[in-house]
């Protein structure tokens, strides 16, 4: 009986270690808004090891964001965008950042994405407080506030991790499955439906969102938690008899 009790205690200890692993990574990043207050929401985006912190202000129809991602190489780029018309890449209004040299502060510029040939351009909506910062672990943070349509409840977001930047000109991003799935609907409030689900590649059909794809604030890892807890309960029951 003592042996069974010891095993049960061991299983409970394992559960304590599992719980932090299934919590949202973004909630541990300590990213603050321009007025030095925490963002209201954050998301572990479903692909490309990227994160979004955001606050929606209904008073002036604006969205303040901080996008966090790690370039694939030292001279690579990261980007976050809004697409006003569709879920795909083309038509995206992007904020793209990279470090011009090792140890330098990241630069960020705007790009109106109309082709794979990335060129700087003006965006179709107003924005302010745009800047980029370096973060531990070679990550880059893109911060800005953008004007969104009055009364809107969501926008189409696109994020990306690209290739080399040569003489200030970003190269084309890889065409891996994750790079082609980095689109989602971003809903402004937690009370709405889950905020982020992987999008389809540009031009392909968009399937329905499944519970596994859902990534709204606060629900990341919930399915994993249920499975892990269920396994622990099953094992505990076995060892009790």
Automatic annotation (TrEMBL):
Where does it primarily localize? Answer: membrane
Q: Give start and end of each DOMON domain.
A: 48-162
Q: Where is this region: Disordered?
A: 193-219
**Source species, domain of life:** Eukaryota
Q: Which organism is it from?
A: Brassica cretica (Mustard)
Question: Where in or outside the cell?
Answer: Membrane
Instruction: Identify this protein by name.
Output: DOMON domain-containing protein
- Composition bias type Low complexity, residue spans: 193-208
Cross-referenced PANTHER family: AUXIN-INDUCED IN ROOT CULTURES PROTEIN 12, CYTOCHROME B561 AND DOMON DOMAIN-CONTAINING PROTEIN
Keywords from the UniProt entry? Electron transport, Membrane, Signal, Transport
The residues the entry assigns to the signal sequence are 1-23
């Amino acid at each position: 009986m003592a042996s069974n009790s010891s095993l049960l205690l061991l299983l409970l200890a394992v559960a304590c270690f599992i719980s932090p692993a299934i919590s949202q990574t973004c909630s541990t990043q300590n990213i603050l808004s321009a007025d030095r207050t925490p963002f209201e929401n954050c998301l572990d985006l479903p692909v490309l090891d990227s994160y979004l912190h955001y606050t929606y202000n209904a008073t002036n129809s604006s969205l303040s964001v901080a996008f966090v991602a790690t370039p694939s190489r030292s001279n690579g780029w990261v980007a976050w965008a809004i697409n006003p018309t569709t879920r795909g890449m083309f038509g995206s209004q992007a904020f793209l950042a990279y470090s011009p040299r090792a140890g330098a502060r990241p630069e960020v510029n705007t790009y109106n994405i109309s082709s794979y040939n990335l060129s700087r351009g003006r965006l179709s909506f107003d924005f302010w407080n745009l800047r980029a910062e370096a973060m531990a672990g070679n990550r880059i943070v893109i911060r800005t506030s953008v004007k969104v349509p009055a009364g809107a409840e969501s926008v189409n977001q696109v994020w990306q991790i690209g290739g080399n930047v040569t003489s200030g000109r970003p190269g084309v991003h890889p065409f891996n499955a994750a790079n082609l799935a980095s689109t989602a609907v971003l809903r402004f409030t937690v009370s709405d439906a889950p905020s982020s689900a992987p999008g389809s590649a540009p031009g392909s059909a968009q399937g329905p969102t499944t519970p596994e794809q859902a990534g709204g604030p606060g629900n990341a890892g919930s399915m994993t938690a249920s499975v892990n807890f269920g396994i622990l309960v099953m094992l505990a029951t076995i060892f009790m008899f």
